[in-house]
Amino acid sequence: MSTLEGNELWKECVRWMVDMGVLDSRVAPRSSMLDFATMLRDGVLLCRLLNELAPNCIEEKEIQRRQHMSEFTCHKNICLFLGACKTVFNLKQEQMFEAWELFRLQDFAKVLSMLSMLSHSEPALRKNIKPFPSESTSSTSINVPLRICPPPEEEAIYRSLQDDVEKVDLDAAIYDISPTKSDEEEPQFIYDHIVCRKDSQRKQDAWSSFTPSSKREHCMKELLDTEQNYVEKALNMIINKFYEPLQKVVREADHKIIFMNIMTLWNLHHSFHSDLRHAILKTLGLSQSSEGRPNSLLGRTIGDVFLQHKDKFIAYGPYCMGLGESRARILDLEKNDPAIKNKIYECTASVNDNQFKLQDLLCLPMQRVLKYHILLSEMIKSTPIDAPDRKSLELAKEAMDDVNSYVNEMKRDNETRQLISEVQNSITELTMPEDVTLMDYGRLNADGEVRLSESTSQQFGKMKTRHVFIFDKVLIICKANRNNTYTYKAAYIVSELHPSLDNPMPDGKMGTISRKITSANQHLLYLIREERACTQESVRHLTLAFKVLQQREKWLHHFELARNNVIPEEVGGTGHKVHYKSFKVDIPHKCSVCDKFLKGLFFQGYKCENCGGLLHKACIALRPCAGRRHTTSVSHSSSFTNGTHFRHSSFGLSSGDQVIALTRSSSADHGFLMFDKDDIIEIIQNHGNGTFTGCLLNDRQCVGLVRSEHVRRVRTNSVQGMCSPLDSPVGVRVDRKESTVLPKRMGNGMTPAPQQDYVNTEVSLQPWYMGDLERADSEAKLRGTPNGTFLVRYSKNRHSYVISISYEGEVKHTVVEQRDSIFYLDEGYVFNSIVELVNYYRENNLCESFNSLNTTLKNAYRTCKLFRVIHDFDATEPKFLTLRKGDRLTLVDVIGEDRGWWKGQIADRIGFFPLSYCIDAKAVVKPVASSQQISILLYLPVSCLFSFLSTSCFSITDECANWINVQMQVLLINAAGLRSYLRLLIPCRKRSFYMSVPNVTKRVKVEIETVDKIPDLKVIKPKVFPDDRGYFVETYNETEWATELGFKEVFQQDNHSYSKYGVLRGLHAQPGMGKLVSVITGEIFDVAVDVRPGSATYGQWHGVILNGANKHAFWLPDGFAHGFQCLSPEGAHVTYKCTGVYNPSTEYGIDPFDKDINVNWPLTDNVIVSDRDRSHKSFAEHRSS
After folding, report:
1. Residue 135 and residue 231: Cα distance in Å, rounded?
2. Which stretches make up the SH2 domain (predicted)?
3. In a 10 Å sphere around its CB, with 0-12 CB exposed, 13-18 middle and 19+ buried, how is residue 656 labelled?
4. d(CA 976, CA 980)
C-alpha cells in the first residue's frame, strides 16, 4: 500500500486514490494541491473511482472525455458522480458538494470530506484499502455524516484555490497529469492471442513452408500471417459463432447495433486477403501462376493492393464509431433478458470457453485497422531506397495513415455530436428553426462562464454572469441554472462579430459601470458586430471581462478559431469562394488538392463555388482557383444580360452538376453522348480539356462524352456588376444558409417567431409566387402599383426564378441565382430556399445588393390584387381607408385577415378596410345562357366568399353546390356548412349572378415510359413533391393510372426485401404474376428477361437503375423473369407489388450468369449469390424442358 509523507488531508486523499488504482503512482508524488484539485475538476477521475467501488454504476459511454476542457462536460461528469453517490452509496444532499463548488474550487475541503466518506464506505473497506484520514475511525458507515474539518490554516489554503484556478492552463492540467490506467490492455491481449498467434494446424502449401531469410521477408510474413488469422480466426469466428446464431434470438434493431457493419468488413477482407496473398507470393517468387486473376490485378505490388482497397477501408469509420453503443447494448441485453444472456454465454463457451467476452472480440477489427501503418512502416525500413516497390509501399503507408485519421475523426465527431445534442437539450427557452439543430452551427469550440455585457450604440450594457457557447457559426449566451441546465438569452452570428481589445464606445458614452470595469484591472475582450447586421436599437458590441490575462487570451483564441473555420484566412489571394460544408459520409469525399479524405461526420471541409473543388482548410492556399469569376447586378425592364455559356472551357464543372443541352448532338463517334436540345445532362467526370463524361438525367444508362460548348448550366449566372470574390480582401462572405438562422427565445405561452416557419415552406404555396409567367405579363401586372410591390415567377426561357419588382414607376427584374442547392441575388448573401431569400429581402433593403434599388420587397402581388368596392365605408381613424362604392382598390397586404380586415391602397391613400366590402375586380357578370351555367360568382378570394354571399342573393343549383363542396374540401374549409348556407339563399331571388364552373385541368402525378426494344416493359416515373422538410410521392393510384395512363392491373400481394451490397437475386419467373418493382432506400440494377415463348423479344433482357433518389418503378408483366443486383454500400430496400399470389409449385429460375441471355451485371467482384440461384438451369435447358 502506497503512502505519502505528511498528514495534510489532500495528500491522504491522493494516497487513497493511488491505492484504489485510479491515480497513477508516478504522477502523485510530483503533483501539487492545485494540480490534484485541477485533475478532479473534469469529473472523469471521480467517475472512474465510483466504478472501481461499484462496477458499472456509471455507464462508460456516459462519461465525457473531451480533447479540450469544456465546462459543460465537466459539469456533466461531476453531476454523474454526484448522482451515483446519492443513488448507489445513499449519501444525503447535505453530505455532498455542488458541481460548481468543485469546478470553481470554492470549497475544496467539502470535496475532500465527501471523498473521505467514500473511503469509509463498505465497498471501499471490502478492498482492504486504508481509508483517510487514517486516524479517523469514528465511523465506518456511509450513512453516518462525516464532515472532516481541517485545521484553520489548511482550510485557508483550500479556500485560496479559487483565486489560483483561473491561472491554470486547464487543457494541459487535465491531459499532462492524468490517470494512466489503460483501457486497451485487455483488447490488445485478445488481439495478440487470436491474430498474432502462430497457427500450427494451417494446411501445408508453398506459403506455410516458407522460411523468411531477411527482415523484409519477416515483415511480409507477419503481414500475411496476421491477415490470414484476422480473416479466418477473428472475422469468420465472429460471423459464424455470434453474428448468425444471435440473429435468431435478438431483435433486428439490437442485432444491427451490436454487430454494426461487420459483414461489410468481412466482404472487404476476404477480397483484400486474396489480393494481398497474390502480391506477396509474387514479390517473393513463390507463385508464377495468374490463373483466375483478372488482367487488372496482374503485376500489382503489395503497396498497390492497399491503394486499390483504400476507399473500402472507410467502412471502419462507422464500425469503430459504433463500438461504444454496441458494448452498452450487449450489457443492457445481458442484464434484462436472461434468454439472450444464456445464448451469448453459449456462443462464447463454444469459441473460447468464455475466455473472451463478445464485446471484447468485437474490438478486434479496430485493433487490426490501426496496425497496418505500423506493419508497412517496418517493411519500408527494410526495403532499399531504389527498390521498385518502395514508392508504392510509402504511398500505401500514407494511405493507411489517412484511413486511421478518417476513423479517429469519425469517432471524435460522433462524441462531439452527442455532446452538442446534450447541450441543446440542457438549454431551456430555446426555440430552434424547424429542422435545424445546434449541430448545424458547427462544432463546439469552447464554453464557460464569463462576465459579459451587451451594449447598443447609445448605452453601455450592464455586466452579467453568463454561460457562453462558441460554435463555429454562432455564439450563444445563456444563464446557468443550478441543475446543470441553462436558460437561453441571446445568439449572434460569429462571422458578423469582430474581436478587438480596444473599447469601441467613445469615452463620452461610457457609463459608470464601464469605467469601474476598466479601472478594476479586468482584462476586456470586445466583439463588435458588423454595421449591416445592426439596426439603430440593436446590440452593437459584446464586452467579455476576465480576471486574468490567460483567460482572455484563451477565449480570444477559441473565438478566432471558430471565425476562421467559417471565413478561412487561407482564402486570401487564391480566388476561391468557399463554403464551410457538411458532406454525406456514405461515400468517401477527397480533397481536390492532396487527394486525402475529408474527415469527420459534419463540416468536414470546404467547397469552392467557382471551381467546384473540395478542400481541406490547410489545402486552400496550396492551389489557386481555376474557376470563373461571378458577379451580380440588377436587370432593368428594358433589357436582360445574356447568360454566359461554358464556351471552350469546362472549368467549374464537377461531378453531380447538371447542365442543359444547347443543341442536338448525334455524333458519328459512338464515344460521344447523343442528346436533344434542352435535355438535362448530369456530369460524371470533368476531363478538363473542354469535354466531360455525362449521362442523360432521364436515362442514366445513356453515358458518353460531351463537349462543353454544347451545354450551359441549369442555373446560368446572369446578374453582373458587383464585387467578385477575387476583388474582396477576404475572398469569402457570410454564408446565410439555414444554419445561420439564429435560434429564438421561447417564453412561457409565447408562439415561435415567424422566422422559423419560412425555411420549410413550399414556393408554390406563397402568395407572391405566380408560377410560369412571361416578362411582359409580369410588367402588365405590376405597372402602376406602389413601390416595392413584387412577384416571383419562373422563366422558362432562362430556366430560373425571377423577382419582378415595381420601383419608381418602372418594373425591374433580377434573376435568382442557384448553385449547389443554394439561392442568392448577391453572392455575399446565400440562402437554402427561395422562401428564405424573399423573406430576408422583405426585411432588408435591396440596396445591400443593388445600388439602384432602394427598397425592400414590400407588397406581395396577388392574383386577386385589384378589387371593386361594393359598400361605402367611412374611416374613423387615419389608419383606416375610406371606401366608396365602385372604387377600384389595390390590395397591399392581408395582415389582419383573421379579424376581417385587409390593407389596401386607393390612389395615394393606404389603410385598413373591411375585407367583406369589396369583390374581385375581374369578376364577370353574365346573363343566363343555358341550364348548364352555374348561378354563382366563383372567382372570389376564399376569405371574401362568405361575406360576399351574405350581401347578395343567389339562385343556387345543385351542380354549383356540389362543385363548391369539392373546392372547399380541397381548401380545408367546412364544405358541408357552406352548402347548407347556400341552399338557404335559394328562395331569396332578388338578383342573380351567373358564371360557369371553371374547367380544371387534371394534373397527372406520374409519367409512364415504354422501353423501346421491349414495349411491354414500362418505367414508371412518379412526380416528387419535395420541400426542406423532405418530400411526398404518390407511388400508386389505381384510378388515375387506369383512366389517364391506361395502366389497368389488379395487385394481390405486396413484398418487401432487403439486400446487402453486391447481393444478386434471380433470375426468378413466377407464371401468372406481374411485378411493379421500386426501391425505398439504396440502389439496384433491376433486370427483366422475356421468357414468353413465341414473343418477338423472347430471350432479350432490359435493365434499369432504381434507387431511393429517382423514385422510379419498373413494371414487368406476366411472362418475364426478374432479377436485380444491389449497388449501394448501405444495402437496398426493395418493394414489389404483384398481380398474383406467390405459388412455389409453378416458380422456376434461370442462371443469372447464363451466356445466352448475357446480362451485363454492373458488379463482378465479391458478388453474393445464394446456392439456390446458382443452381438454376441455363436458358437453353429451360427452352428444351
Report:
1. 58
2. 768-857
3. exposed
4. 6
Number of helices and strands (H, E) in the chain? 34, 43
Backbone φ and ψ for 476, nearest 5 degrees, come out as -110, 130
Distance of alpha carbon 685 from alpha carbon 656, whole angstroms: 9
820 and 885 belong to one structural domain: no
User: What distance in Å separates the CA atoms of residue 953 and residue 603, rounded to the nearest whole number?
Assistant: 64
The strands making up 614-615's β-sheet, listed across from edge to edge, are: 578-581, 605-608, 614-615
| Residue 992 near residue 955, CB atoms below 8 Å | yes
pLDDT for 415-468, tens place per residue? 888 889 989 999 988 888 777 889 989 999 999 999 999 988 777 888 889 999
Could you give the C-alpha distances from 332 to 254, 325, 641, 915, in angstroms and in order?
Answer: 10, 10, 66, 63
What cell does 1131 get? 444495402
What grid cell was written down for 425? 437539450
* Residue from 1068, 1122, 1176, 1182 carrying the catalytic annotation: 1068
Place of cell 405566380: 770
Nearest to 1083 by CA among 1044, 1054, 1125, 1115: 1125
Are both 396 and 451 inside the same structural domain? no
Range of the domain at 346: 185-199+208-410
Is residue 418 situated within a structural domain? no
Query: Do 249 and 107 reside in the same domain of the chain?
Result: no
Whether 36 is covered by a domain: the verdict is yes
The dihedral formed by the CA atoms of 1179, 1180, 1183 and 1185, expressed in degrees to the nearest 10:
-110
- The torsion angles phi and psi of 165, rounded to 5 degrees, stand at -65, -35
DSSP code of residue 597: B
pTM above 0.70, yes or no: no
CA distance 982 to 967: 14
Closest by Cα among 495, 553, 572 to 529: 495
Size of the chain, expressed as the number of residues it contains: 1185
Residue 572 · residue 617 · CB < 8 Å: no
Question: How many Cβ atoms are within 10 Å of 90's Cβ, its own excluded?
Answer: 12
Q: What is the CATH number of the domain that holds 402?
A: 1.20.900.10
Helix (H, G, I), strand (E, B) or coil at 923: coil
Q: What is the CATH number for 502?
A: 2.30.29.30
Q: Which of 920, 942, 963 is the last residue of a domain?
A: 920
**558 assigned to active site:** no
CA atoms 524, 529, 531, 535: torsion sign: negative
pLDDT tens sequence across 624-671: 888 654 433 344 333 333 333 333 344 456 666 778 887 788 766 667
* 3-class DSSP state of 1086: strand
Which CATH number fits the domain that encloses residue 829? 3.30.505.10
CATH of the domain at 671: 2.30.30.40
Lowest mean pLDDT among 801-815, 922-936, 1079-1093: 922-936
Distance, CA of 937 to CA of 203 (rounded, Å): 92
Query: Grid coordinates standing for 443?
Result: 462544432
- Whether 149 and 168 map to the same domain: the answer is yes
What CATH number should be reported for the domain holding residue 1156?
2.60.120.10
Angle of CA points 1112, 1114, 1118, to nearest 5°? 160
What share of the chain has pLDDT > 70, as a percent? 74
**Structural domains in the chain (count):** 8
Any domain includes 498: yes
Give residue-wise pLDDT tens across range 941-995: 444 444 444 444 444 444 444 444 444 444 433 444 444 444 434 333 333 333 3
Looking at the structure, tell me whether residues 1118 and 1036 fall in a common domain: yes
How many other C-beta atoms can be found within 10 angstroms of the C-beta atom of residue 504?
A: 15
Separation in Å, CA 629 to CA 608, 637, 712, 720: 12, 25, 16, 10
> From the CA atom positions of the chain, what is the Rg in Å?
36
CATH (domain of 590): 3.30.60.20
Active-site residue 1068, yes or no? yes
C-alpha dist (Å) from residue 624 to 169, 572, 575, 620, 621 = 39, 10, 6, 8, 7
